[in-house]
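cron nightly-structures :: item 1 of 1
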Amino acid sequence: MNLAPAKVPTRRAFAQRMTDRGADDGEFVVFESDLAKSTYSYLFHDKYPERYFNMGIAEIGTVAAAAGMAQQGRNVVVCGYGVFVTMRAVEAIRSFICYPHLNVKFLSSHGGLTAAIDGVTHQATEDIAFMTTLPQMKVLVPADTASAAAAFDIALATPGPVFTRLMRDPLFELYGSDEKFVLGGSKIVRKGKDVTIATYGDMVFQSLAAADELAKKGIDAEVIDFYSLKPWDQAALAESLKKTGALVVAENHQKRNGFGYEAAVWTLLNNPVPTELVGLEDTFAESGAYQKTLDKFGLSGASIAEKAAKVVAKKK
């Protein structure tokens, strides 16, 4: 894997695109729960203060107020940390936004263990389970600057609620600025014939590292970035599994009720193949350096490569 380091985290790329789009769309507004410097929503405030509302440390109230404005016909963006948005405010999101299918879009920062040094209280490792379970909610997880900017455009153009999971720190750049992304799409970021690694967000890079390790053992891994988790690209997975006949799903999330469960059940019903899941094993993590935390809790490229080698062996 030889990728250029990212200069900004996906949370900033999303917020910057939000600010840029404020010039050509004068209707949407932004709500914040007193984390403007962390979500980078202050970029929008500085340019459009009359369209920006800081509601304080009150996520339920922020979501309820956003729902009220969305009910009047506006697009509304709610910014916050994933843990607080998806847990403190989940009832309000369910009943006030998803049920009436309102145009509220979520900038959700600190997804998974990308919030590593901030500790368990700030590591959103159950957010995908909550948000993908809610009827009407759409879920995006960009991996780099270009896909994060595109995620904002997709969210703004998509009717109803959209949740975008973003990272704390910059990692790598994967896509060019002219790359196209669509709701329900995916990207094959490395072609292979022996095993499919389905992944998203920061784990795309761990999966590419795993593919490099597997290549040393003569195993040719295909890596797919499922940047849209709901809806997700079932056709892409089906086509890949026709070639490889083996699946690993790698995610920075609890293994239970994550994308791995979704993909594994789909595979069981449609094309049963040897399958392994990489995720948190029913545990909280801890505060620490990002890569060391991934290593300790079995989410590193080395762990993905180990699981991939197992499923390839099961084929034989």
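cron nightly-structures :: done
The chain has a mean pLDDT of 97.
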